[in-house]
Amino acid sequence: MKKHLIHFLSLLLAAMGVLLLMLTGCGQANKSTSTGALGSNAAQKTYVAPGSLDEFYMFASGGFSGQIGVYGLPSGRLFKQIPVFSVDAEKSYGFNEETKPMLQTSHGFVPWDDAHHPALSQTNGETDGRWIFINGNNTPRVARVDLSTFETAEIIEIPNSAGNHSSPYLTMNTEYLVAGTRFSVPIPQKDVSISSYKENFKGALSFIKVDPNTGHMNIEFQVLMPGLDFDLATCGKGPSHGWSFFTSYNSEQKNSLLEVNASQNDKDFVAAVNWKKAEEYLKAGKAKDFPVNYMHNVYSDETHMATSTAMKSVKVLIPSECPGLVYLLPTPKSPHGVDVDPTGEYIVCSGKLSADITAHSFSKLLKAAESKDFDGDVGGVPILKFESVLGGTVKEPGLGPLHTEFDDKGFAYTSFFISSEIVKWKVGTWEVVDRQPTFYSIGHLCVPGGNSMKPEGKYVIALNKITKDRYLPTGPELTQSAQLYAIDGDKMELLLDFPTIGEPHYAQAISASRVIPRQKQFFKLSENKHPYVTPTEKDAKVVREGKNIHIYMTMIRSHFAPDNIEGVKVGDKVYFHVTNLEQDFDVPHGFAVMGANTAEILVMPGQTETLVWEPRQEGVIPFYCTDFCSALHQEMQGYVRVSAAGSGTALKWWLGDEKPVQ
Ligand code: K7E
Ligand code: CUA
User: Fold this and answer.
1) Residues with beta carbon inside 6 Å of ligand 2?
2) What is the model's pLDDT at position 661?
3) What is the secondary structure of 504-523 as a DSSP string?
4) Using CB atoms within 10 A of its CB, is residue 662 exposed (0-12), middle (13-18) or buried (19+)?
5) Are 404 and 350 within 8 A, CB to CB?
6) How many CB atoms lie within 10 A of CB 86?
7) Residue 631, CA distances (Å) to 464, 553, 557, 635 in order
8) Whose CA is closest to atom 2 on ligand 1?
9) What local confidence, expressed as pLDDT, does residue 39 receive?
10) Beta 411-416 vs 401-406: how paired, if at all?
């Protein structure tokens, strides 16, 4: 985003012929707003005393880190990094045998992605604290994180997509999450000239059904759109429940130098998709089965393992064959964010190159669709007349609007990348009531519940791209950053800067009280269905199957069973299946063995995890617990004797006194 928008900045500068540098972020260095009495007031409002809990969780995307960062508000304290599309050495996500399948795709194992948009599950238009979803932008995927464990529970790949950016956005009861493609591509993929863009390229909008009980995702259908670049999305609520909205740029349908070529038209489009209508068309058998390849990966808290399923087909609806399914709303100009206000009536669009913020009216959209108030079509998708759907305009609020969130008092907050500020305006009267600078170059912003029907309000958090002069320098790469503003008064008040890990595109926040009741403290050993579980110490054993050795091992404060193993040979593949026997909150044990070409495993109470080790040299090799679990944690260690390939060393193992074992 950063680079693209810097291009837009230069374009805008050229177009307007004015020097805006004084308005951009870096020109505002050291304009401190937190000194003196103001500073101590702000400190008081963000101070969470030692031992006290924050009021909100904030989940921020890590952008190119592929993770979700979990922070407390108002303190800004970082609690956890949840690995989603990235491997994580701390907890072995993507390294151990159990979680490797999570990162399987139709392109093989893909241990990285670019995560932009966290989306908290909702019930009746309100965040419910059950799950949080997030997109993988690069190799199109959507993940679900379970908020009882704060671990990634499911990842589904999205076929016919390329750049899963307008994703994931949820309906008000989490019936669907929508995922639009940023890059149009040939569908199905084929070897054609890039110059045949207009003729061959299409954009798929995916509708993924979410099981209300398990959260499991399933691609219900796709809508095959003309070759536009679908940028952001949102879903209707209240009266507009049943509809989803996608911004697009490149209505010019160009395939090179988009910074210029896709900025020609005065208006681009928001695609309004009636998904309830789509369900009718599906029932009526109007969908076509397209052959595709994608992976669906699900982690089970019972087997403590993920499985990958290869999927082969997807249902596709073609708009020209399904009247009333999709309308295009002309929208100035290269719109980025699209956000529906809490009443469900206004569809607020941020045209990056537009002087104004445009709000479409949902009730007018319905009327215009009914009376076929069309202004041509694109590839068979009717365009509604701009004037017929326009609900209101915020006049010249700032430069480079990107995203809008709402509070509980009828106000909207829009981020402005170029003028680097948050602008507060009133929904319905469209008047600007306040503005505050951000430091610097804000992307998304976040109000707790700010995209739901019942925003919790209280704070707005700016998620910034540039932090020059704000923090101690850390080499060429400076930290990314969030800024917390109080919004309970008439004027926004900057309270706190805090760094984030990775680029925080978007974040969502929720009252901690909605999340805490579902917390899992440990896994019940009696319910552990891992195929290599070792439920008690006396079940510990070592089994050779050809060159594979399976070690059924347990861990408890402060020893492994077994802790002495002999009979392993160079050329063997050794599987340490380690079960943590603890049945208490906050007592993980770790396991690492010298020379293993992987990460440690960090096993939660009641869980089993597997580390694979292929010893290459003879000798006696130590292993140990990596988590300081007790006063005798250092003693939690053991040895494996490795003999030459073909040696006659017998397989045996013990804990305490050596004794023969079968
Ligand atoms: Cu505006 Cu990817 Cu939502 Cu970055 S995106 S800011
Ligand atoms: Cu177990 Cu340290």
Assistant:
1) 558, 589, 625, 627-629, 633, 636
2) 59
3) ---EEEEEGGGTGGG-----
4) exposed
5) yes
6) 21
7) 43, 22, 9, 9
8) 116
9) 72
10) antiparallel
Output the residue whose Cα is nearest ligand 1's atom 4.
505
Spatial distance between the Cα atoms of 181 and 157, rounded to a whole number of angstroms: 12
**Dist. CA 549 → ligand 2 center (Å):** 24
State the number of CA atoms in the 13 A half-sphere of 528 facing the CB.
27
- Give, in order, the Cα–Cα distances in Å from 40 to each of 48, 75, 438, 483, 486: 14, 14, 20, 17, 14
Residues with pLDDT less than 70, the chain: 1-38, 660-662
- The ligand placed nearest to the CA atom of residue 559 is 2
How many Å apart are CA 56 and CA 79, to the nearest integer?
12
> Both tokens of residue 422?
């948050």
Question: pLDDT tens digits for 280-306?
Answer: 999 999 999 999 999 999 999 999 999
Q: What is the token pair recorded at 292?
A: 């595709």
* Assigned token pair, 656: 């305490």
Q: What does R_g of the chain's alpha carbons equal in angstroms? A: 27
Amino acid at 126: E
Are 352 and 336 in contact by the 8 Å Cβ rule? The answer is yes
Query: What count of Cα atoms within 13 Å lies in the side-chain half-sphere of residue 230?
Result: 36
Residues contacting 462, CB < 8 A, separation 6+: 415, 422, 438, 442, 445, 482, 483, 485
Q: Transcribe 349-402 into DSSP letters.
A: EEETT-SSEEEEEHHHHHHHHHTT-EEEEETTEEEEPHHHHEEEEE-S--SSEE
Angstrom distance (rounded) from CA 155 to CA 142: 6
* DSSP code at position 62: -
With 0-12 / 13-18 / 19 or more C-beta atoms within 10 angstroms meaning exposed / middle / buried, residue 432 is middle
Q: Which of 631, 642, 636 is nearest to 655 (CA)?
A: 636
Q: Which two tokens stand for residue 480?
A: 């990314």
Environment class of residue 355 by beta-carbon count within 10 Å: exposed (0-12), middle (13-18) or buried (19+)? middle
Secondary structure tally for the chain: helices H, strands E: 7, 46
The pick from 232, 465, 500 for probing ligand 1's pocket by mutation, whose C-beta has the most ligand atoms within 8 angstroms, reads 232
Cα of 603 to ligand 2 centre, how many Å?
10
CB 375 within 8 A of CB 383: yes
Residue 442 tokens, joined: 């804000």
Distance (Å, whole) CA 93 – CA 607:
14
Pairing of strands 601-603, 335-340: unpaired
Strand partners, 330: 269
Q: Are 236 and 244 in contact (CB under 8 A)?
A: yes
With a CB cutoff of 8 Å and minimum separation 6, the contacts of 421 are 398, 415, 435, 436, 437, 438, 442
In the reported structure, the alpha carbon of residue 555 is separated from the centroid of ligand 2 by a whole-number distance in angstroms of: 8
Residue bearing tokens 């079509």: 377
Cα–ligand 1 centroid distance for 482 (angstroms): 14
Q: The tokens of 276 are what?
A: 């309830």
Ligand 1 atom showing the smallest separation from residue 506 Cα: 3
Triad 41, 497, 169: Cα angle to 5°:
120
Tokens of 577: 């299946």
User: Of 356, 333, 338, whose CA–CA distance to 348 is shortest?
Assistant: 338
Q: What is the pLDDT of residue 40?
A: 77
Give me the pLDDT at residue 15, please: 42
Tell me which residue has its CA closest to atom 1 in ligand 2.
589
For residue 99, give every residue at least 6 positions away whose Cβ sits within 8 Å of its Cβ, in sequence order, or none.
92, 93, 299, 306
Cα 229 from chain centre = 20
Q: What is the maximum alpha-carbon separation in the chain? A: 87
Report helix, strand or coil for 644: coil
pTM: 0.94
